[in-house]
Design brief:
It is a single chain. It is built from 12 helices and 14 strands. A hairpin with a 4-residue loop joins β1 and β2.
Length: 366
């Protein structure tokens, strides 16, 4: 089937009228950030923040009009308002979350109210101060370790800058929309998965403005048919930007885990992550030191390439738990990059045991 074009999408959207203004949403210039990828369509609808909550039917209508086009697999439309772009770090986040749905009766403005996640018992975010420290590798292996322990697990790849989870889970299929209009998550190795990478091209993801990316991520949590989950693990983008803040304020996170390599510079970034979660009252379950030391596959000798132990010391200094260390080992890279993470491809190995020990500690905190 021919690939759907932007013109076709805009043409379909012209059938959707903003009744208050008696013009269609394309003529009104409300469509932004249109993304097309293998039959998946994502776009923003710019709205006045005051009207946001009233425009949900319009958003649904827009999604439906595009979904009716031949060749469209999923549609993600998000309402976006420039003024919602950067919630102040100091804004009240309410009391620490008591579970999905947030604290009942809290008087938060709508933008900071926790989403209601029916059927999802806990949500854990995996964060890192900077990219390339092995955050996604850790997220995948931890999610699989929880599943190996009998938990029902979902893994959401929210890394807009480099979505890699489907590849690490060996998923090549594309998600489809269910009859009820939800997006069906993909599954492999016993866990469910959804990725922002299914909806947007990697190169263009990073030019999405903060509110569009967070809107799309919120929908990937809300509009995906996750079913009953003991835990939804979210692989966050690296760093501490608007996306993190909004997610921390909107998603009822049970806690966050910070992944760092042992050297000073990476740790300084990890510290920023800690401070951010503290500001929005999200408990940090602890630090994981990845690429902790190098274990030579030939001679078995161990080398502390990044001066091993930095994360443990840092955790102690900050009064946080140190959850464990994972060495730099080519087996970890090869297995995760080939879609067979070590926890499933060699469950009895020492590394798999380390991931399972960490997962147990995390579970105890949940
Ligand atoms: P991030 O999510 O922090 O950007 P990734 O998880 O994508 O990092 O990891 C970056 C690269 O490093 C990947 O190729 C991955 O396989 C590799 N890697 C991650 N952790 C380890 C490890 N402990 N040993 C060896 N390679 C690793």
């Amino acid at each position: 089937m021919a690939e759907i074009t932007a013109e076709q999408v805009l043409e379909a959207l012209k059938s959707v009228k903003d009744t208050d203004k008696d013009q269609n949403i394309v003529e009104l210039g409300m469509i932004s950030g249109l993304q097309l990828k293998d039959g998946h369509v994502a776009f923003g609808i710019e709205v006045d923040p005051e009207r946001g909550s009233m425009l949900e039917p319009l958003r649904k209508e827009a999604e439906k009009s595009v979904h009716d086009l031949p060749g469209v697999l999923t549609v993600t439309a998000v309402l976006t308002a420039e003024r919602e772009a950067a919630p102040e770090p100091a804004a009240p986040a309410g009391p620490p979350p008591g579970g999905p749905g947030g604290a009942p009766g809290s008087q938060q403005p709508a933008a900071f109210q926790k989403m209601d996640l029916l059927g999802i018992d806990s949500v854990v975010a995996i964060a890192s101060g900077k990219g390339g420290v092995g955050k996604s590798t850790t997220a995948v292996n931890l999610a699989l370790a929880m599943a190996a322990d009998g938990k029902r697990v979902g893994l959401l790849d929210a890394d807009v800058y480099g979505p890699s989870i489907p590849r690490m889970l060996g998923i090549t299929d594309q998600p489809e929309q269910t009859a009820s209009g939800m997006i069906a998550p993909l599954e492999n190795h016993g866990i469910k998965c959804m990725s922002i990478g299914f909806l947007i091209e990697e190169e263009t993801a990073m030019i999405w403005r903060g509110p569009m990316a967070t809107g799309a991520l919120e929908q990937l949590i809300k509009d995906v048919a996750w079913g009953e989950l003991d835990c939804l693990v979210i692989d966050l983008p690296p760093g501490t930007g608007d996306i993190h803040l909004t997610l921390a304020q909107r998603v009822p996170l049970s806690g966050a885990i910070i992944v760092s390599t042992p050297q000073d510079i990476a740790l300084a970034d990890a510290r920023k992550g800690l401070n951010m979660f503290a500001k929005v009252d999200i408990p940090v379950f602890g630090l994981i030191e990845n690429m902790s030391y190098f274990s030579c596959p030939h001679c078995g000798e161990r080398t502390d390439i990044f001066s091993h132990g930095g994360a443990r010391k840092e955790a102690e200094k900050l009064g946080m738990d140190f959850l464990g260390e994972i060495p730099l080992d080519i087996v970890i890279r090869e297995t995760s990059d080939s879609g067979q993470p070590i926890v499933v491809s060699d469950p009895k190995s020492e590394h798999s045991k380390s991931y399972r020990d960490i997962a147990e500690k995390v579970w105890a905190k949940i």
